UniProtKB/TrEMBL annotation:
Pfam families (UniProt xref): ARMT1-like_dom
Domain spans labelled Damage-control phosphatase ARMT1-like metal-binding: 45-360
Cofactor: Mn(2+)
SUPFAM superfamilies the UniProt entry points to: AF1104-like
Keywords of the record: Hydrolase, Manganese, Metal-binding
Family: Belongs to the damage-control phosphatase family. Sugar phosphate phosphatase III subfamily.
Catalytic activity as recorded in UniProt: beta-D-fructose 1-phosphate + H2O = D-fructose + phosphate; beta-D-fructose 6-phosphate = dihydroxyacetone + D-glyceraldehyde 3-phosphate
Gene3D superfamilies per the UniProt record, alphabetical: Uncharacterised protein PF01937, DUF89, domain 3 (3.40.50.10880)
Annotated GO biological process: DNA damage response
Name of this chain's protein: Damage-control phosphatase ARMT1-like metal-binding domain-containing protein
An example molecular function term from Gene Ontology annotations: phosphatase activity
Superkingdom, taxonomy of origin: Bacteria
InterPro entries in the cross-refs: ARMT-1-like_metal-bd_sf, ARMT1, ARMT1-like_metal-bd
């Protein structure tokens, strides 16, 4: 493996990654305890997890749940370490594993088994005015020129990534307007996605709610123009607040069914039909909730990526996994940071963490001067492709 920059940590006072633990997570835990009438044992377990993650060490016991062997190895390698010393990506992923443990999500003998702790927040977004406006905009695309429509669907999926509920936890009023595209490899993306051949296009989803709705509209377009099937890869269980699971897709289709616009109801119908005939495949993999980068993806998932026409990775967390959640020089070419990926790959991501690669050096200097927090606000976005 080539020399890689060091992982982003959570130890630096004033850093964004540290603020996720010290500012975002306390709000997140308070929201959960407010959203559900959890009994004392669950509320206490959540508070204990929060306290441990702010000032404690990693206990030796592996938190139960699926993929236990992977987690045995991961935890054994970090047991006894202060949370502060952990890499950001590992620590966050472990935090959500522990959170699911605290709310008894995988306990078959608990009445809280399978209860998505983030469902109330996800449902609020599905019923909210922002999604309403998104669907009005979708319906208004009817009759648009084909190239304009395709561009609009791609940009809606891209900017839909601003609406993740982890980011909104402590940024409730975050600007959801469209911002600046710092890289735009859209032509390369379409060339790959619409190339002849029967290999699938894989879309690795990120968040439920507005983002998965826009992603489904993009998937519908791909189903229309691609010459092979489309796979939508989802999380196997709740994660990073709003990450989309199979249940979220089903809830979204139901919400689309209720829409006043015929175009939107037709979208839901086409998607269901495509799932039924196997043209659209919903898929998941345990690796999507591992605390690791795609550089070390399990062989079976790497093979799936390798055999796809194109893998489209949505969102900030997938980006962190793709290039590595590391202290990259932002001028590093995307093709270099993602060069190891087993097949053609595209990233659609709004910037909501310190990581950046593939930024034009001249623009970078100006950005750092005019908007020093540009990496964190979700108002800068990337469409990056490595063929
Ligand atoms: O993957 P997503 O939904 O685009 O973003 C995930 C996120 O909420 O989590 C991280 C911090 O918790 C940040 O990278 C980002 O803000």
């Amino acid at each position: 493996m080539p020399d890689l920059p060091p992982p982003i940590g959570i130890d630096r006072p004033g850093s964004f990654s540290r603020s996720v633990f010290h500012e975002r997570h306390p709000v997140l835990i308070a929201n959960l305890v407010g959203d559900f009438p959890y009994p004392p044992r669950i509320a206490e377990a959540l508070e204990a997890l929060l306290a441990e993650s702010l000032a404690g060490t990693v206990p030796p016991r592996t938190p139960g749940g699926p993929e236990i062997h992977t987690w045995h190895l991961e935890v054994a390698a970090r047991a006894g370490l202060p949370w502060d010393s952990l890499p950001f990506l590992w620590a966050e992923s472990y935090f959500y594993r522990r959170l699911l443990r605290a709310v008894e999500y995988h306990h078959y003998d608990s009445p809280w088994c399978g209860v998505d702790p983030f469902a109330p927040q996800k449902h609020a977004q599905l019923d909210g005015p922002e999604l309403r406006a998104d669907l009005d905009a979708y319906a208004a695309l009817k009759g648009a020129d084909a190239a304009d429509r395709r561009r609009a669907l791609l940009l809606a999926s891209l900017w839909g990534n601003q609406a993740d509920l982890g980011f909104r936890t402590n940024n409730p009023g975050a600007d959801t307007g469209v911002g600046e595209l710092l890289a735009d490899d859209a032509d390369a993306l379409w060339a790959l996605a619409e190339a002849p051949g029967e290999a699938p296009v894989i879309v690795v989803a990120d968040n439920a709610g507005r983002e998965i709705t826009a992603d489904l509209a993009l998937v519908d377009h791909l189903l229309e123009t691609a010459t092979g099937p489309v796979e939508l890869h989802l999380k196997p269980h709740p994660y990073f607040v709003s990450d989309a699971t199979g249940l979220d897709v089903s809830d979204t289709l139901r919400a689309l069914d209720r829409d006043p616009h015929e175009e939107v109801r037709d979208l839901a119908r086409r998607l269901r039909d495509a799932i039924r005939v196997g043209w659209l495949r919903l898929r998941t993999h345990g690796a999507y909730v591992h605390p690791t980068e795609y550089r070390t993806a399990p062989a079976d998932l790497a093979e799936e990526f390798a055999s796809a026409k194109l893998v489209i990775l949505k969102g900030d967390l997938n980006y962190r996994r793709l290039v590595g959640d590391r202290e990259w020089d932002p001028a590093t070419p995307f093709a270099e940071a993602a060069g190891y990926f087993p097949g053609p790959v595209a990233a659609l991501r709004t910037a909501k963490s310190d990581l950046a690669v593939g930024v034009d050096p001249a623009r970078l200097a100006a950005l750092d001067a005019e908007a020093p927090d540009w990496r964190l606000t979700g108002t800068r976005a990337f469409i990056q492709v490595r063929p």
